[in-house]
Specification:
Number of domains: 3
Distance between the termini: 69 Å
Strand order of the largest sheet: 4-6-7-9-8
CATH architecture of the largest domain: 2-Layer Sandwich
Oligomer: single chain
Shape: elongated
Strand content: 5-15%
Number of strands: 9
Order of helices and strands: HEEHHHEHEEHEEHHHEE
Radius of gyration: 39 Å
Number of helices: 9
Largest sheet: 5 strands, mixed
CATH class of the largest domain: Alpha Beta
């Protein structure tokens, strides 16, 4: 028997039958014993021994009473069994039907329908299971969409430079394009961009797989930030932007991978420079009892509310109209998120459309180190 509903119904009903029959036998035995004792006390009881068993002789009224009692027990037992059958079915249905629906939804998801959900109509364990399933399908669908977007983004980002390289090399081979210094420099830039993209993809894949372990050492946060700002200032100056750092209190050293820390801050500053046309970018550092918070504040175009939840996704750009050259590879913020997670920290953003954004790195002061490098 493969039906869960039938199995549960029969199991509950058989249990009910056993209980009811047991009660009938116990009641019948107790009543017969007590009635026999009563007759014995009144001197109306006659008995004789027959092969070691007691036989009781009763007058017609007493016999009628016993028959009526047994009839009543049979009727009551039948009614209880009928009620038990109905209750068994509905009890089994309340358990089995949600499981059957959940099984159908699981099969739908296995067949590729990630929109399949089950209705949550109860708060017990079965309802909690349905809620967990719905949450799982939402996350699975989100992961699938991200994977598809990632693959499409990789193909798109690689296609353009490869097409440019192919066209130019064919032009040089056909004698249409002169292989002068300017042309070679242009092709070299495309190769460099491809190399950078492939390197970022490799680094991102290692981080997401948990295979890129930070090499912890004591890091002077303030000195590291000054170095990154010094490196980034020429790019800000080209756009007439002011790049500053603000530190109003002593900042402790922290355990961190200095290369990752520099890369995180640099990526956030570059993101601010790309999306800021006037004003500037300010880097601030504050220390709490548990963490150091590094904020990169820009006066750029800002981020719409619907874009904030996707801002750390692969190849996601707030301004889709921007060119790849001015908008980067689309992996910078995704790398920041994975690097800060590898440090046991967090990154979050607040933004006002048209006024600017604030990206904040929160790095714990005390982190368990698995790979410590001596300073």
């Amino acid at each position: 028997m493969r039906s869960l509903l039938a199995r549960v119904t029969i199991t509950v009903f058989v249990t009910t039958v056993v209980v009811v029959l047991g009660l009938i036998l116990v009641v019948n035995y107790q009543v017969s014993e007590n009635f026999s004792s009563y007759l014995d006390m009144r001197g109306m009881h006659g008995a004789m021994m027959n092969h070691g068993r007691m036989a009781v002789t009763m007058e017609p009224p007493e016999q009628q009473f016993i028959l009526s009692l047994k009839h009543s027990l049979v009727v009551a037992g039948t009614m209880m069994l009928g009620i038990g059958a109905v209750v068994s079915y509905y009890l089994a249905r309340s358990i089995a039907v949600p499981v059957i629906k959940l099984n159908k939804a699981v099969n739908d998801v296995a067949a590729g329908n990630l929109d399949s959900t089950v209705a949550v109509t109860r708060q017990d364990e079965v309802g909690q299971l349905a809620t967990a399933f719905n949450e799982m399908t939402v996350k699975l669908k989100s992961s699938t969409v991200l994977r598809q977007r990632f693959l499409a983004g990789v193909a798109h980002e690689l296609r353009t430079p490869l097409t440019i390289l192919k066209a130019n090399l064919e032009g040089i081979a056909d004698g249409v394009i002169t292989a002068d210094q300017e042309q070679i420099h242009s092709l070299t830039e495309e190769v460099d961009r491809l190399t950078k993209l492939v390197g970022e993809l490799r680094e991102l894949s290692f981080l997401e797989a948990g295979q890129a372990n930070p090499e912890y050492r004591k890091v002077d946060v303030v000195n590291t930030l000054r170095q990154v700002i010094q490196k980034s200032r020429p790019l800000a100056t080209e756009k007439n932007l002011l790049l500053t750092i603000e530190i109003n209190e002593p900042i402790s050293t922290i355990w961190a991978d200095i290369t990752m820390l520099q890369q995180m801050v640099y990526n956030l500053i570059m993101n601010g420079i790309r999306y800021t046309t006037e004003g500037g970018i300010k880097v601030t550092v504050v220390q709490t009892s548990e963490a150091i918070e590094i904020a990169v504040i820009d006066t750029g175009i800002g981020i719409a509310e619907e874009d904030i939840e996707h801002i750390f996704d692969h190849f996601y750009r707030v301004d889709q109209a921007r060119t790849k050259k001015s908008g980067g590879t689309g992996l910078g913020l995704a790398l920041v998120k994975q690097m800060v997670l590898a440090h046991g920290g967090q990154v979050y953003v607040t933004s006002t459309l048209g006024q600017g954004s604030t990206f904040t790195l929160r790095l714990p002061l005390n982190i368990h180190q698995k790979h410590i490098v001596s300073p």
